[in-house]
Amino acid sequence: MAVLDRRHFVRSIAVAGAAANTQMDLRAAEAAAPPDVTRTLAAWVVRSRAADLPVAVHKEATRTFLNWVGCALGGSREAAVDIAISALSPFAGPGQATVLGRKERLDVMHAALMNGMSSHVLDFDDTHLRTIIHPAGPVASALLALSEYHPISGRDFLHALVLGVEVECRIGNAVYPAHYDAGWHITGTVGPFGAAVATGKVLGLTEQQMMWALGLAAVQPVGLREMFGTMTKSFHPGRAAQNGLVAAFLAAKNFTSSDHGLEAKAGWANVLSISCNWDEIIGKLGRNYQISLNTYKPYACGVPLHPTIDGCIQLRNQYKLTADQIERVELKVHPMVLDLTGKKAPQTGADGKYSVYYAAAVALVTGVAGEKQFSDKLARDPAIIALRDKVSPVIDKSIHEDQVRIAITLKDGRRLEKFVEHVISSVQNPMSDEQLETKFLDQADGVLPAVQARNLVGLCWNLEKLDGAAQIAKAAAA
Amino acid sequence: MAVLDRRHFVRSIAVAGAAANTQMDLRAAEAAAPPDVTRTLAAWVVRSRAADLPVAVHKEATRTFLNWVGCALGGSREAAVDIAISALSPFAGPGQATVLGRKERLDVMHAALMNGMSSHVLDFDDTHLRTIIHPAGPVASALLALSEYHPISGRDFLHALVLGVEVECRIGNAVYPAHYDAGWHITGTVGPFGAAVATGKVLGLTEQQMMWALGLAAVQPVGLREMFGTMTKSFHPGRAAQNGLVAAFLAAKNFTSSDHGLEAKAGWANVLSISCNWDEIIGKLGRNYQISLNTYKPYACGVPLHPTIDGCIQLRNQYKLTADQIERVELKVHPMVLDLTGKKAPQTGADGKYSVYYAAAVALVTGVAGEKQFSDKLARDPAIIALRDKVSPVIDKSIHEDQVRIAITLKDGRRLEKFVEHVISSVQNPMSDEQLETKFLDQADGVLPAVQARNLVGLCWNLEKLDGAAQIAKAAAA
After folding, report:
1. Nearest C-alpha of chain A: how many angstroms from B114?
2. What is the DSSP string of A183-246?
3. Contact B271 A224 (CB under 8 A)
4. ipTM of the complex model
5. Which pTM was predicted?
């Protein structure tokens, strides 16, 4: 439910930047596919050099990776991950790679599956807003597991991560929204391309092999939107990572596939989407990078709540507010907020994710809104309940979906106001490095000792200079 | 090429039996899906008992299995299988299960992948003519690998095989031809359902778990028709087997999925097909069995050549013909035969698969048309070349696609005639047990010692009475 809503929300705020994407897609679909989409993409990937990447792209890749590691730690003790490890480890190979935040070591393929699952299971991972792809899951999960088997320098790791994200998001741009609207969970259907390209680059595939890897990825899409709300949703990016690795390793040994897996009449795009804008895949390659458009969720709940949480935390910190000072919290919100998150008296942490009353209160009291702030314990906390009941949201049609207008009246008569114009984690207002680090440490809390978590953050920021990215995997084991 | 052609051929001969399938599909698509397709199917599978199966169904399941084992042996030394084992065995787990016809033992999942590939790589496996699904590949590959890890009696094995084939073919019936025409390789897209149901039955899944297994299978379709002619085609049924096993093992540990994976708006059928006849999935469950409609290819080449080969072998055996007796071979054939298999002077065995001249000659000389009869050596054999040049096919529009009219003139002046009304391996004219056994032994030749192959045939025929189906896997190791 939360995710479906998120989609509509995200699409409307993304449309301005995407320049009427839908119409472009439909026009493009009328034209025949260019004959060499797969080859053009493969050739570009094979020729790309780490030195080609702008510094800002490298930086965003580091932020993407750090956020992904934190999410994988945060989700590592969820039931879905426990079950998957228990069900599949009897078939796993040598302990080649780390399951982040846990003590188990599995073969590269199974480690990629588990890390892809844990990084997505709390719906707290990164988002490419234009397509709602969660780009890191499939790509970083495959790459990091691979790094413990096949050494990868930090610099090459970041380069491959950028390429994998580029390819999956470009393919996503080409078929969005038709492909998503049809019911595919796009992260799992484009993810195998991203994982195959990233790991194939590291394995040194030739252009021909890279084309085959794309073809092998094309036949292994994963994920239907019907599974949202079940454990199977988190399986999608994990299996996508695994499928991409399988594709790359097979192609590296000259397992043949089509040279036209993307564009052929019975190829991926035509079979999985009623429209495709081919230029989105092969136009301006290397002139811009999709990872620059990646965003990170600051709060462990649906996007409609984010502006309110954002503004409440800002006011709390600016005025050093405590709950007992507050008389009244008035919110002017977009109509969707009450539609989707209008529960007045949530009884559990999970219910709290559907309550703007609870979200405002917990943000004001704790200054954070990670997974831990949506616990059953806090949902029953008298101080939070008292404050929750002082929150009065009203609909204001002039308020955009990524905005909120907050007015807090204090018991001493002061009135504090905050207008959030662009919620944090939009492309216009990204999370700062510090905020990403705070999110990371909050997710690692209870999974890794604090000293280990701080050390791991340092390694992530320093990834570009590491001799081996595998250091990070090893440092993330419980 | 051969396979695409085969599709058109098969569809036209299957239409009579399928009662204007296309129109039924389109009408059905206008109606909303019944609310509980997944539950109905799961409940039926969970309640089904081996004793419910008619004897003839058990018998056909045995024939399906024997044919599949032979095909897996026959394909076991192909390059695609060599490469896949080489590329993926570094990640494989304990040597739990046999790769048929080889010495490697891999974990259950990888063994299923390899056996699924080898059984399909020569395009010589079984066919459900109405949908062109190759039913055994995904289901038997998953089941046999599982039997070496989780003991399965021969009787339970056959029962699970029947159920798996039933589910994959029913789902295929519901979406064929729209789904196939869209570009999906149907064996790989319905295969995960078959494998999940068969192995889930053996693992004792509850109704709820079986629904989840179907949901997990739904998110893992494999295969695009664009890959025909490449190694990736054989990957499809193998990966489908593996995906079904993953689904069953996860569901067995209560990994949750949707209860409506098949029929939901964003479920498998609506996302992967523009039409679906739901009644084909849940109507008359247990009143007929799709495995009864399974057919086996007698010849290792495209279907258009089969009537000619069939008739030539019959004449050869009936009159104990030798090549030097023959003056002239006249064929009246369907127009497609010359369109698709009109090469007059093939230089290689692979080319021979596109030559009705060569096919008639090799059938008359050897009495067989297995993979070995399409070798480079035989394509250059002077006796076969001499006879090949005496073959004169002419188009006759009164000849149906599964027919041929043959007239052989001997040097002594005799004229021998044969009209093939229904080619062997149609549902109307199935291969006999003896013919299946001959095909099996021909495929095993060069892979297993003759004594071992004969023993293995005996075990396959006797499967129903075996305490453990795993015996067969072990007896099929090189």
Report:
1. 13
2. TB-HHHHHHHHHHHHHHHHHTT--HHHHHHHHHHHHT----BGGGTTSTHHHHHHHHHHHHHHH
3. yes
4. 0.88
5. 0.89
